[in-house]
Amino acid sequence: MKDLLSLLSSTLDDGAVGEISQQINATPQQTRGAINAALPMLMGMMANNCQSKQGCESLANAVNRDHAGGGILQQAQAFLKQGNIGGGEKILGHILGARLGTAETQLAGQTGLQTSQVHKLLGLLAPIILGALGQQAQSQGGATAGNIQGLLQASLGSLMQGQGGQVGSQILGSLLGGEGGSSGGLAAAGSKLLGGLFKK
Question: What is the pTM of this model?
């Protein structure tokens, strides 16, 4: 059984990156760089939501409702080719809320993409992350709040061991800045996010 990060890495292969690059009208190299920055930011914000029982249960409910078993992963390229971000926008609204615009602006500034391109990228990535969470949680007995929280925390721990991903970590730290001790650890944990996981 792959861990969460390996599952995402194998799903977001060159073919998937190529589909996303066509959807957002960017080069595959630009797209992969933006994915590298976006994933730790999104997963860090999901983990931040899991600091509260209500937030974690809401995330688990979303996984159970739409992504139990991770079926989207088996159809990832078809999903990406379709380019529908309606579901992804709802996920982004829950995990980022009012900070979505700030996250998009910062990602755009760091990656050289337009905010509209970043918006679509995030909208395509969010359901894939929930699909990976759903598949992993199913192997552990279901998408309970505890399982989801454990998967996210374990992934952030793995991300901390890598090198690179500084862009994502900086944005995550900025989004979590000034929120007190509970999220301070997450912001600090972002210093070496993602490693070289998605690099060729």
Answer: 0.84
